[in-house]
Amino acid sequence: MVADAVIYHPAVAHYLKFVATTVGRDKLLRTLQYFARFYAWYLLRTNATKDKIQPWEAVKKQFGLVRKVLRAGKNVEHFKAAAVAADNKNMDPVLRYTAVGRQLGYAGYLTMDLATLLDATGIRKSPNAKRLQQEAYRFWAAGITFSIVGQLYTLWRLRQREAKVDKKEGEGVVEGKRIAIERAASQLQLTSDLCDITVPLAALSWVNFDDGFVGLAGTVSSLLGVYSQWKKTA
User: Fold this and answer.
1) What radius of gyration, in Å, describes the C-alpha atoms of the chain?
2) d(Cα 63, Cα 58) in Å, to the nearest integer?
3) How many CA atoms lie within 13 A of 50 on its CB side?
4) Local confidence pLDDT in tens for the 234 residues of the chain
5) What is the DSSP string of 133-158?
6) How many CB atoms lie within 10 A of CB 28?
7) Which H or E element spans position 62?
8) Closest CA to 202 of 20, 29, 38, 28
């Protein structure tokens, strides 16, 4: 009876729906990957022995490789999203341009990342792999930058909308709640973007972030991604 109560619990059904999605599995793997990056750095800074650091280095490397394989071909999805956003003439012009920029940035990142897949898996080594990976990080940084600009603009627009709302009226109360929900979603995405942008900035040596900071920031953004995907599969 106890086993039945566990197996048929709604949380188990929700978990199965979550891990059935590629995004859900990727976010879990990403959380472990970036936590391992942070913890390996922490162990190194605290003078831990090599045999204690090595497993976390392996988690960081191998989970990163698994995620690279899983996202192969995902660039097409972002190229399509960019085209859809560009064709949406009803969207606010600023949000449309930032959406197109974001999607093209991610598409470029995934395309360059895909070009390094054979080298990363050891199937076929390429002398251009390092350069292609650097280009991938440039595209990723551009995509996240467009996303940050879009979220800041969204928050500014929400403040304008809120200033016009009369919260003493029934419709105003409903609109106020709607704005609060939209603001929370935008703030969550902005926080995630600000954490994520540390990765390409550090990889390109544009900002001198160490592995501990990048690993911690990546862990936070990954957990936010897990939270968002968990809510979507509820």
Assistant:
1) 21
2) 8
3) 0
4) 555 666 667 777 888 888 888 888 999 999 999 999 999 999 999 999 999 999 999 999 999 999 999 999 999 999 999 999 999 999 999 999 999 999 999 999 999 999 999 999 999 999 999 999 999 999 999 999 999 999 999 999 999 998 888 777 777 788 888 999 999 999 999 999 999 999 999 999 999 999 999 999 999 999 999 999 988 887
5) HHHHHHHHHHHHHHHHHHHHHHHHHH
6) 18
7) helix 50-70
8) 38
* Backbone φ, ψ for residue 162 (5° rounding): -65, -35
Amino acid 92 reads: D
SS (H, E, C) 187-207: HHHHHHHHHHCHHHHHHCCCC
CA distance 108 to 135: 9
Structure tokens at 229: 């995907």
Answer whether 218's CB lies under 8 Å from 37's CB.
yes
